[in-house]
Design a protein that fits this description.
Number of domains: 1
Distance between the termini: 28 Å
CATH topology: Rossmann fold
Shape: globular
CATH superfamily: LmbE-like
Order of helices and strands: HEHEHHEHHEHEEHHEHHHH
Largest sheet: 7 strands, mixed
Structural class: alpha/beta
Number of strands: 7
CATH class: Alpha Beta
Bound molecules: zinc ion
CATH architecture: 3-Layer(aba) Sandwich
Length: 364
């Protein structure tokens, strides 16, 4: 176990000098949201909205845009969080429910800090780790692997008591989309390796299609086979896609040092995610945010031509193949995450060993 731990630490350190340090100057720049924009960020878990688009979101609010956030789950299948909160290696269903409540409270704090009013964010409370199963089995009610619940157990949710099924999830998301009436939707990419993320992308797009809405659709990638996590923060580096995704249709949103600090403060609100939140900070708070553009390719083409005439390099549109990506993401997403991933026990044990460091003040 000791050797495995050392290898894990070595891998994390080496990852810091990996693909995340590659330049992204050849990708076009995403325009900031303006006063007439209505932005909806879809987060499978509570913290994804900051990791993926916290800088863009903060600028959107500053520019007078309407910003909405929808959290599909309460993040209540996180074994490390449950272990740290309850100081146990074998968390119970109630322990996981408490994680969900804690993360919902953190979401409220983060939204307040970001400047999102309570009627602009929505907690749906569907099962963490269960979105792929729900999407792939639309006529089935899914049981949470962590809490054992069959329906939304949180009173703070949009529809408490709704069964864990595609029909109810789609209804909730449709309500949110009707309220937000978004001109821009930011959700995960369909080729994210995390089943909840790839499913969130497909669920979002299917509800948008059924609602006959066609907003600008931007995607954020968090989980890849080479997760660029590291123990060292490199705020002066760019966030670039892994090499095998380099030719996809990416665009980039620059972050100033001030915005990096603001995003950092927002992300660290998620204290229940310590110490992992520090690794995420080191990986995702960089000189830019990265977005996959899976719609409006003609609009992008025009923008690319404009940027090229201004001396910037060309967006590789010829490589855009979003249908292929969906197939790829679906294939990967079909593999469910086990409740106890191979490294979970080791990570939980390490977290407990250093729990004085991990535990924020005021937590049980
Ligand atoms: Zn997530």
């Amino acid at each position: 176990m000791f050797i495995t731990g050392l290898l894990t630490i070595f891998t994390l350190l080496v990852a810091g000098s990996g693909p995340a340090g590659r330049p992204v100057i050849h990708y076009p720049i995403v325009a900031a949201a303006g006063p007439r924009d209505r932005v909806l960020i879809v987060a499978p878990h509570i913290d994804d909205e900051v990791i993926g688009a916290g800088g863009y979101a903060a600028d959107a609010i500053r520019n007078g845009a309407q910003l909405y956030v929808v959290f599909l789950t309460a993040g209540d299948c996180n074994r490390s969080s449950a272990s740290i909160l309850h100081r146990t290696l074998e968390p119970t269903a109630n322990n996981y429910l408490e994680v969900g409540r804690t993360r919902i409270a953190e979401a409220r704090s983060a939204m307040a800090k970001l400047g999102v009013p309570p009627d602009h964010y929505f907690i749906l409370g569907y099962p963490d780790g269960g979105l792929r199963t729900i999407y792939d089995n639309p006529n089935t009610i899914v049981k949470s692997r962590s809490t054992g619940e069959l329906s939304v157990p949180y009173s703070e949710a949009l529809s408490p008591g709704s069964p864990y099924s595609m029909e109810y999830l789609a209804n909730d998301l449709r309500r949110v989309i009707e309220i937000a009436a978004p001109t821009v939707v930011i959700a995960p990419v369909p080729f994210d390796m995390h089943p909840d993320h790839s499913a969130a992308a497909e669920i979002t797009d299917s509800v948008l299609t059924a609602s006959h809405r066609n907003p600008t659709r931007l995607g954020y990638l968090i989980h890849t086979s080479r997760i660029p996590k590291s123990f060292v923060w490199f705020p002066d580096r760019s966030l670039a896609p892994p090499p095998r995704f380099e030719n996809y249709a990416w665009a980039t949103y620059p972050l100033t040092p001030r915005m990096q600090r603001e995003k950092d403060r927002l992300l660290l609100v998620y204290k229940s995610q310590r110490p992992n939140v520090f690794l995420l900070r080191n990986a995702y708070i960089r000189k830019n945010e990265l977005f996959f553009v899976n719609d409006g390719r003609e609009k992008q083409k025009a923008e690319s031509r404009k940027q090229q005439s201004e001396g910037r390099t060309l967006f590789p549109l010829a490589a855009a193949r979003s249908l292929t990506f969906e197939a790829e993401g679906r294939k990967k997403g079909a593999i469910p995450l086990p409740l106890h991933a191979p490294n979970d026990l080791l990570i939980s044990a390490l977290c407990l060993l250093i729990s004085d460091f991990c535990l924020p003040s005021g937590m049980p």
